[in-house]
């Protein structure tokens, strides 16, 4: 304040007072020092663009504009400056990129779709011509180089012709009939053609092919069918073979199947272990079931005794590959096995399933479902193919006769079920649904009204066996794991229970009416591929597995009754021997 006061002194004071003049000179020099510019290291700077203060903005939620706003103001970012790292002018409206709606006409969409399928590129209208970095984009997706070479042509545009178009030969001179320049006229061909020249394999290749055909035929004929009997004698004291139905049992093996109430077996009473590899199928002897036939992956077929000694009776050899399926004729005197060659009948393809016609007057006819999508009908007497059914699109898995053997139902790897009239190669019923899976095992219910099909989606589905072949949606048996395995389905003789194996070695039993699981237990160490219920025993079941074993199961009650009868028999024998001993002693004493 003193410095400011000295600047406003009057002129009189300056002239009259010399001391004050000196003082004023000193103050003036100091005031000049004080007026030097001051450096502000942190000045106040406005962060707002002065141009933006005069701009008019709208809210992002506004749908109407009441004033004329420049385009530069409309495209300003909502918050913050523009992102310098965004190379495209579009914003990321989803987490993984940008999604925008486009409206195309049907013609434009089909044009670009077919252009991409034919040429490998298509126009991309979502791309802009110029990016934020002033880099011109191609506007195409796919093969951009080809699109630029063809100038973005579509399938409806004229495309460049091929350079190597064959040229037509000259017509020649009409005055020359033969020779190099002879007249050809409109019949002149193209340059580079080989019409009229010998085209084929070299001379040495034809004998090699013939030798290969002969060797392949010899390979099929190599399988020498032979059989081995395992026992002391094939005939008993009366001249009967093992085919004779035994009469010394407490079971009527010639009775009507299903006449007795059946029970679920729980205990294993015997194990057959003669195969060296997995057993693929087992079948009881027709009607009596006193024998059991087994087919294995060791290329052998064996017949086993169910009663008495329960040993292997005979082995059949001659297959050069694993045996997939076996079936008996009605009288049991003949059976068929499925492999590459069916006895003396062959189609050149591998059969997956074989079935005799169940009619008594047609026991010389059988069907074979092969890997070439066909069902072949053979006549044993003539050895010829009498009919072919070729509507399937995959390998045929099952053949089941229905409707008093006038029709048969087949399933295949094409996930369909087809019904045929016997001896007529026309499908009368075709069932194919999006939810259907392949059904490699099918069994007919004892009442002949239903078909139980093992589906590969881990369930057993039921279809009607009458005219319509409709699916019974209320009957579905689940709980087991069979995906990838053709586990056989079977019924009890009275039709009350349905059973199946699974991939974990378990055997499952369901109630036919309620579809509830009644019993499940561990039967084998590997997948249980086959199961057969004895037609005359109330609780006897045979199972086979890929562990090479065949097991016989009975219920606990039946097993205990058998043991008690056995014990009572020995008690009776002991009492009889004791009484005989006493009577013999009394006689000797009386004689003495």
Structure, explained:
The strands form 8 sheets. The chain has a 5-stranded antiparallel beta sheet with strand order 3-8-7-6-5, with no helix packed on it. Strands 4-29-28-27 form a 4-stranded antiparallel beta sheet. It has a 4-stranded antiparallel beta sheet with strand order 11-12-13-14, with no helix packed on it. It is built from 8 helices and 29 strands. The longest helix is centred in the C-terminal third of the chain and has 36 residues, at 556-591. By secondary structure, it is of the alpha+beta class. It is flat and about 140 Å long. It is 18% helix and 26% strand. The chain has a domain at 112-128 and 138-157. This is Pre-mRNA-processing factor 17. It is found in: Nucleus. InterPro entries: PRPF17, WD40/YVTN_repeat-like_dom_sf, WD40_repeat_CS, WD40_repeat_dom_sf, WD40_rpt.
Layout of SSEs?
Blueprint: H1 2-7, H2 11-16, H3 18-34, H4 71-74, H5 106-119, E1 121-123, E2 140-142, H6 144-149, H7 205-221, E3 226-229, E4 267-272, E5 279-284, E6 291-296, E7 301-305, E8 312-317, E9 326-328, E10 335-337, E11 351-356, E12 365-370, E13 375-379, E14 384-389, E15 396-402, E16 407-412, E17 417-421, E18 424-431, E19 441-444, E20 450-455, E21 459-464, E22 471-478, E23 489-491, E24 497-501, E25 506-511, E26 517-522, E27 528-533, E28 540-545, E29 550-554, H8 556-591
Antiparallel strand pairs: 1-2, 3-8, 4-29, 5-6, 6-7, 7-8, 9-10, 11-12, 12-13, 13-14, 15-16, 16-17, 17-18, 19-20, 20-21, 21-22, 23-24, 24-25, 25-26, 27-28, 28-29
